[in-house]
Amino acid sequence: MTDSESIIGAAARAHGAVMTESEGMAIVGHFGDPAAEYRHLCAGAALVDLSLEGVVRLDGGDRGDFLQGMLSNDIKARVVGQGCRALVLTDQGKVVADVTALVDEDAVVLVGAATGVAAAVPALERYIVADDVELHPSGASEHVFGLFGPDAATVLVGRGVSTPPVDDYDHVSVDAHEGPIRIVRVPGPGVGGYLCVMPTAGAVAWWSGVVESGAAQPVGYEAHELLRIESGVARLGRDVTSDTLALETPFEDAISFQKGCYLGQEIVERVTARGKVNRRLVGILLVGGAAESPAPRPNDKLLVGDREVGWITSAAWSWDRGQFVGLGYVRRQHCEPGTTLDVHMQDGIAPATVSALPFA
Questions:
Q1: Domain that includes residue 98, residue range
Q2: Could you tell me the pTM of the whole model?
Q3: What are phi and psi of 242, to 5 degrees?
Q4: What digits encode the pLDDT tens for the residues 76-119?
Q5: Are the C-beta atoms of 219 and 37 separated by less than 8 Å?
């Protein structure tokens, strides 16, 4: 039983969508052929509903200094129209949120998994003492779509965005018929593309306009999830929990090792100086199996011989590879690509190997 449905649910079903459930929300699973949708993500232009993303705006004259001491990346090195990936950490160096931080003229906007954004708001607010900073979660007033694939920029030009951003995390705001839209260049998953952040009131009309123009293929969760896993993009709440240390995951591009103090930095520096973590998120390639076979599930154990060395966090069937691919945590002694191990699933044991990320 879901708590809610994506706002594009009715419009998507009119285009053949089959719905699925994730994090208590009914979202688009696929539009009839997830394998074809996956190929549009890789070699065309694909429009993905990102209903599970959230947005929070920070304003006030001290926002830059405040966030410089809170985020893991160097926000003050970015000027208006630029951004970066960053983490909100606890003072123990554990991940609260993984966000894209965007510098505006009068604010900094954070976009990330809605559960992470919701957790980040009180985590940040508790450190506001005399700072001139206010946080404004958008709640249900803003919606996020992803426009991915090598032809994504062409689609935006066709929708009136004359010069889509080129460099990673650069962003522009444009006025569209459906309202103001923020266009953010992102490097992944896959070849990357754009986040499109807009008022919820105009989101269905914008999605329908892009789809009905034929400029981009609507793509559901199944294809996007496979590309996310193959790209080694860790998902908060799935591959990253409140017990995850920042350096156990592929978050290096979200961390500045030069900028100085920030919340959780002492632990990050200590782990870096030690040169290793006890476990690491790696790729997992299952040997054998078929598309109709049961997929590995989160928390399925990974063993070497009779010794437990980790667990699965995400898995999906790869149509091109003809096998299941996944992400999982493995103890550092067994993290080398090519290491063989077993996945203990509900229906039996499947052999697997460790893969570097992203998957080749």
A1: 1-277
A2: 0.96
A3: -70, -10
A4: 999 999 999 999 999 999 999 999 999 999 999 999 999 999 99
A5: yes
Residue at a domain's end among 277, 300, 317: 277
Q: Which of 262, 222, 307, 243 is nearest to 39 (CA)?
A: 222
Q: Which of 137, 229, 237, 152 is nearest to 186 (CA)?
A: 152
Alpha-carbon distance of 123 to 232, in angstroms, equals: 27
Tell me the CATH number at 173: 3.30.1360.120
**pLDDT tens readout for residues 133-163:** 999 999 999 999 999 999 999 999 999 999 9
Residue 202 is encoded by which pair of tokens? 């105009």
* 223 C-beta neighbours (distance < 10 Å), count: 27
Distance CA 83, CA 184 (A): 9
State the amino acid at position 224 in one-letter form. H
CB 224 within 8 A of CB 192: no
Q: How far is CA 163 from CA 73, 144, 160, 190, 224, in A?
A: 27, 20, 9, 22, 26
Same domain, 181 and 45: yes
Closest alpha carbon to 147 in 208, 196, 85, 197:
196
**Do residues 185 and 111 make contact, with C-beta atoms less than 8 angstroms apart?**
no
